[in-house]
Design a protein that fits this description.
alpha+beta, Alpha-Beta Plaits, 26% strand, four-stranded antiparallel beta sheet
C-alpha cells in the first residue's frame, strides 16, 4: 500500500481529484488544508476507507483510475492534523495485516 500526504494542495490538484472522485455528491469537503492519498489493492482500500471514515475531521472519496469500476485510490480531505492522524491509523492497522474494528 502506498500512502502520501499533500499539505496545502494547489487549486489544480484539488480540481483534478474532485473531477475524478467516485461519488456523485456535489457537496465540497469542508476543509481541504491537506489531502491524504492511499493506493493499493481493493481489500486494503475498503479497510482504509473504514478506518478513515471513523477518524474525526476527514472526508473520504474514492478516486477513479483508468478503469472506473476498480477503486484503487482513496483521497482523504481535511485539516492537516486530521489527515495525518487518519493516515497513521491506516498505516498502523494495515501493516500487520490485522484489522479489528470492534
Amino acid at each position: 500500500m502506498d500512502i502520501r500526504i499533500i499539505k496545502s494542495p494547489s487549486k489544480g490538484t484539488i480540481d483534478i481529484l474532485l473531477r475524478r472522485k467516485g461519488s456523485n455528491q456535489t457537496v465540497m469537503p469542508e476543509c481541504m488544508d491537506a489531502i491524504g492519498l492511499v493506493q493499493g489493492k481493493i481489500i486494503d482500500m475498503i479497510v482504509a476507507s473504514d478506518i478513515a471514515e471513523k477518524a474525526v475531521g476527514v472526508t473520504v472519496e474514492d478516486i477513479k483510475g483508468s478503469c472506473p469500476q476498480n477503486m484503487v485510490l482513496l483521497a482523504l480531505f481535511g485539516d492537516t492534523a486530521s489527515v495525518e492522524s487518519a493516515l497513521q491509523k491506516i498505516r498502523a492497522a494495515t501493516e500487520g495485516g490485522a484489522y479489528n474494528p470492534c
